[in-house]
Design brief:
Blueprint: E1 13-17, H1 21-26, H2 32-49, E2 57-64, H3 72-95, E3 98-103, H4 111-123, E4 130-138, H5 140-156, H6 167-173, E5 184-187, E6 206-209, H7 219-229
Parallel strand pairs: 1-2, 1-5, 2-4, 3-4, 5-6
Helix pairs in contact: 2-3, 3-4
The structure holds 3-methylbut-3-enyl trihydrogen diphosphate (2 copies) and magnesium ion.
One 3-methylbut-3-enyl trihydrogen diphosphate binds near residues 17, 18, 61 and 67.
């Protein structure tokens, strides 16, 4: 009996752990924040490119739940960079048909940033050329913890029966409920770990770890990686047919 395998992988959803901004700056004798600013410029090129190479979902890890442990000045600089990015890019993203959404816990962010995020989501809600998701104060364990908390209330109040809980039902409680699972997760800067990114969603993702520091990551490199992954045999636990 032939084992049925899925058709070759199409890379529809790319998720990126944008790492190496600090090292990029330090190697040049510059403050780490300069690296973060350069990194934000990279985001523009990558966002513009994705639809051209068939990528309809792009998810970017911008700030983790662990990144609060950094020096207060760096955290403040990053938060200010996020605000400026939204203010500066909102119109262009909208004109380019990009739908922007945020995942992560907004509770710890400042009111001004929360407001800018909500307004950008609202403004771009009708777009579907590219789905850009920005993970800001995101941690996979935190996401699952918040989901379980909400789910526990729904069970306690009789809205959900424990026997009805399926993988899909759990997915519905996650921040990513509206996203397909990532097909490919890229991490720049040579580190080979997931650092709490999309822990549930990455179950069958391909991983690519590249040495390039995020501020040097180009559209050409992304294109090469995506092309290299397209057509890989996708077995989901079966054996090759
Ligand atoms: C990634 O670059 C950006 C964030 C985590 C916000 P880093 O700041 O982690 O850069 P390195 O790893 O120190 O080089
Ligand atoms: C992961 O990078 C988080 C983001 C890219 C936002 P980090 O630099 O924070 O991860 P670790 O500390 O090396 O695991
Ligand atoms: Mg890092």
């Amino acid at each position: 009996m032939a084992i049925e395998t899925e058709p070759p992988r199409q890379i529809n959803h790319v998720a990126i752990i944008m790492d190496g901004n600090g090292r990029w700056a330090t190697r040049r004798g510059l403050p780490r924040l300069v690296g973060h600013r350069k990194g934000a410029e990279r985001v523009r090129e990558i966002v513009d490119l994705c639809p051209d190479i068939g990528v309809r979902y792009l998810t970017l890890y911008a700030f983790s739940t662990e990144n609060w442990k950094r020096a207060q000045a760096e955290v403040a600089g990053l938060m200010s960079l996020f605000r400026r990015y939204i203010l500066k890019e909102a119109d262009k993203l909208n004109e380019n048909g990009v739908r922007v959404r945020f995942i992560g816990d907004r509770g710890r962010l400042d009111a001004k940033l929360i407001d800018l995020m909500a307004r950008l989501e609202e403004k771009t809600a009708a777009n579907d050329h590219l789905n850009l998701t920005i993970a800001l104060n995101y941690g996979g364990r935190d996401e699952v913890t918040r989901a379980v908390r909400t789910l526990a209330v729904d069970v306690a109040e009789g809205r959900v029966a424990p026997d009805d809980l399926s993988e899909d039902a759990i997915g519905y409680y996650l921040d990513t409920r509206y996203l397909p699972d990532p097909d490919l997760i890229i991490r720049t800067s040579g580190e080979k770990r997931v650092s709490n990114f999309l822990l549930w969603q990455a179950a069958y993702a391909e991983f690519e770890f590249v040495e390039t520091l995020w501020p040097d990551f180009s559209g050409a490199e992304l294109t090469r990686i995506v092309e290299g992954c397209t057509g890989r045999d996708r077995r989901f636990g079966a054996i090759a047919g």
